[in-house]
Amino acid sequence: MERLKLEFYYGQEAEQFTFYRLPKALITDNRFKDISNNSKLLYGLMLDRMSLSVRSGWFDDQNRVYIKYSIKSIMEDLNCSKMTAVGLLKELQAIGLVDIEQRNGLANIIYTDLFADYYAQWVHVYKEGAIRKVTLDKYLMTQTWLYKLVPELKMCDMTRIAYQQLLNDYAECHERQTTMDFHHQLKGAILDAVDEGLIDRDPTRKVIIKGKTPAEKKIKYLNQFELHTLLLNLNLDNEINWDWFILLVAKTGMRFSEALALTPKDFDFSHQSLSISKTWDYKGKGGFLPTKNKSSVRKIQIDWQTVVQFSELVKNLPQDKPIFVTKERVYNSTVNDILERHCNAAGVPVISVHGLRHTHASILLFAGVSVGSVARRLGHASMTTTQKTYLHIIHELENQDVDLVMRSLSSLS
């Protein structure tokens, strides 16, 4: 056989290709271990045709979506004989992955109506390339759980009881908030399926969210004296280092990825402000990414001392290059290890870089800054997030308010 001479593709050129998708359960689930690899490949080809079916309005009189896939087309796609193509279809039908009908002697009408498969296709079509990788990973994890909990659930069997049972099964080993997130990630796909007529009625209506009792989580943060002691221990040289990074996060409450993405042009020294408009992809291959949400795009006021310090530090640095990223990969653990050493040297509780963000917020709240102002400074999507995160501090402040009210009233007599 003559060796093919193919060109290599470099950088982002390789991203121009699309791929067939194969449900992970077909490889990992023991129920499918006896299916041949060619049958699994054929099933992946069928799933790829589902989006065409939906766009073309191929629904039967029961509102089930179907695909048109002739024996001849299967033979051409898999480069196999007619006997092999028929055998692969029978193998998929025998285990219940597809239902097959033949109309007009031309094409096989095939139903691949498993809910887990529909969800996988929905994530591929609507979510990939439209959301951040960290968010996409959550949808893919939900997809994995569907193949684990309801691998055989069909679209036509997705009733309120079936959906509630799915959530109940998931909630057995997850906290209530995690179950709520699982529900929200499924609901978008289900409502689209209802709109397309694949599911008769919305099964998510009046759903009840359950879950394990969450373990009590106490946020680690420093008080004002401890933070002051920590900052005195930093080695603030005349050049940028991770100690300057720690100082800036402590004074602004930025997220780790936001601080990594800072460039000299993000500083507006004349107005004493810092512009947050992007993040750094430290979990991936590096590079700038959008912020966590729209509310995260913001301007943070900084004190005059920070203005003086950083105006000198960044004046000779490239305006559009990250200040703190000097290598291709930056690890959260690297900065946390440096911070831990400083905490131990200063004799204060050990916290993480994210703990500095909590420290910043708690100091502002204890100083009497409103929850709304703190939420905007932190880039929270709503004040509800801030209230939930710092509920213990708000309760402590409310107790102080009660004492203040009582003293004010007693002075009236």
Give the strand order of the largest sheet, numbering strands 1, 2, ... along the chain. Answer: 1-3-2
Helix tally? Answer: 17
What structural category characterises the helix and strand content?
Answer: mainly alpha
Radius of gyration: 28 Å
Uncertain segments are none
- What is the straight-line distance between the termini? 104 Å
Overall mean pLDDT:
86
Shape: elongated
> Element order, helices and strands?
HHEHHEEHHHHHHHEEEEEHHHHHH
Percent in strands: 5-15%
Largest sheet: 3 strands, antiparallel
Helix content: 40-55%
- Number of DSSP-assigned strands: 8
Please, could you describe this protein's structure?
The chain has 413 residues and is mostly helical. Helices cover 50% and strands 7% of the residues. It has helices at residues 25-28, 37-56, 71-78, 82-95, 115-127, 133-149, 160-171, 176-195, 224-232, 242-252, 256-260, 304-313, 332-346, 353-366, 371-378, 383-389, 391-410, and strands spanning 67-69, 99-103, 107-111, 267-268, 273-276, 279-280, 288-289, 298-301. A hairpin with a 4-residue loop joins β4 (267-268) and β5. α2 (37-56) crosses α4, α9 crosses α13 (332-346) and α15 crosses α16 (383-389). The N and C termini lie far apart (104 Å). The mean pLDDT is 86.
